[in-house]
Write a structure and sequence with these properties.
6 strands, alpha+beta, two-stranded antiparallel sheet, 5 helices, 138 residues, single chain
Length: 138
């Protein structure tokens, strides 16, 4: 099963403040331990939201609204993420709890969620019947 560990942005990450060398070394060692265990699928960092765009679509249709960053870190922005291939949520949680966290940068928030398995949904007879029903109506 694949799991996504999302690292929430902070005022520090949104300001582009780099981590100290000690934390960077501990974080690299952690990623290496995930890779050595054979469960690391991705390890990515994001640039601050000032370099991004937010695209929203009105609920009743119509044109998209495009807004340039920066956005408030309190709005649930991500700083980075890991994708793990673990046997269970318990195993993914064990790895998440081993994640080194920087000191002196405020609260660190991580969200752990299982990724959907697209192969499982395509073969579900109930979903296939629902898809057929939708196709017949459009």
């Amino acid at each position: 099963m694949r799991f996504l560990l999302m690292f929430k942005s902070t005022a520090f990450s949104e300001a582009g403040v780099n981590y100290d060398q000690d934390f960077a070394a501990r974080r690299a060692a952690y990623a290496k331990s995930l890779a050595n265990a054979g469960i690391l699928l991705a390890d990515e960092s994001l640039l601050p939201s000032s370099s991004g765009l937010r695209i929203t679509f009105p609920p009743n249709g119509g044109g998209a609204n495009v807004a340039a960053g920066p956005f408030a870190a309190e709005s649930g922005l991500m700083e980075g993420f890991l994708i793990l291939d673990a046997r269970s949520m318990d195993e993914a949680t064990e790895w998440a709890l081993k994640l080194p966290v920087p000191k002196g940068r405020g609260e660190v928030a991580i969200e752990l969620r299982q990724l959907a398995d697209p192969a499982a949904t395509y073969h579900d007879p109930i979903l296939m019947a629902m898809e057929t029903n939708l196709r017949e109506h459009f």
